Amino acid sequence: MGENERPRGLDVSNWQGAIDWRRVAAQGLSFAYVKATEGTTFRDPYFAENASRAAEAGLAVGAYHFFRAKSVGEARAEAEFFLGQTADFRLTLPPALDVEIPPTGDPVAFREAVLAWLEYVSNRTLRPVVYSFPAFVVQYLGDPQFERYPLWIASWDRAPSEPLGAWKNWTFWQYTCSGIIDGITGRVCLDVHRGPLDLASEETPAPPPTDAPLISEASPASPPESPPLTPESEVEGRNEPGAAPHEETLPPDETSSLPHSEGNDTFAFRLLAAVRKILLFLFTRIFSPILRRTPNSHGDADARKE
């Protein structure tokens, strides 16, 4: 299928505010992913409106969850919260899990937690899609167990290389987060599906036995060898809008914090950085010249006294 023939869509959250979905759909887009939940307590305030209006406008709609769990138990709680918040909506795309915050502890425990969320949701609805970006996929999502879940890759400055981590190819590609779409104020992330977008081919697995394990009992494979992510890279993550992520590093930022995340830690980091720049500007433009003139003024006063 040619590049221009692939189904195109977008993904949105409360960052975009109110959206005129009929104007959006009129521009030839086929699908939309809308943020539903984050962690175990946050529900996107625009989710209900976005999911309903996008479907009414004729788009295929899916919901995504922003992952914050650090353990299998937390992951299952997040999955249950997500399913509870999305159960009453007409969603035709598979659910998606946004995984972009690097683990602070054991990477094996982190992978088990991600798999727990995916398997919990997969056993109760359509098989989920995994959203992330190349550096994160290579470093943290290389376990072969991830391959059974379609990949939604964010790569904004080039076409994603293949294979990526556990995946031989991508299913969704987020190619920019600087898109301009009629009906949306500001910029938005745009995506393409590998195509064709055949919703009828998606499987709905039967519910598992109540005592069935939600993750494999086998130990996950070791993570692939790659340079560790720096704290600066962790903060930049997925931005909206922002510059493109690429193969070796996380995406550089052009605006604010992670668009999918409501976390205050990244926002605080950005705010402090901005204040620091302002203070540095004031010092170099105002206070520094005053300090340079001070010795001369004292000297002039002494000269007048003489």
From TrEMBL:
Alphabetical keyword list: Glycosidase, Hydrolase
The protein's Enzyme Commission number: 3.2.1.17
UniProt keyword Metal-binding, yes or no: no
Gene3D superfamilies named in the record: Glycosidases
Database matches in PANTHER family: LYSOZYME
Pfam families assigned to the protein according to its UniProt record, in alphabetical order: Glyco_hydro_25
Catalytically driven reaction(s): Hydrolysis of (1->4)-beta-linkages between N-acetylmuramic acid and N-acetyl-D-glucosamine residues in a peptidoglycan and between N-acetyl-D-glucosamine residues in chitodextrins
Region span, Disordered: 200-261
SMART domains, A to Z: Glyco_25
Top-level taxon of origin: Bacteria
Biased composition (Pro residues): 221-230
Name used for this protein in its record: Lysozyme
Basic and acidic residues bias spans: 235-249
Class of the enzyme per the UniProt entry, highest EC level: hydrolase
Family classification: Belongs to the glycosyl hydrolase 25 family.
GO biological process, one term: cell wall macromolecule catabolic process
GO molecular function: lysozyme activity
Alphabetical list of InterPro entries matching this protein: GH, Glyco_hydro_25, Glyco_hydro_25_AS, Glyco_hydro_fam25_subgr
Hydrolase as UniProt keyword: yes
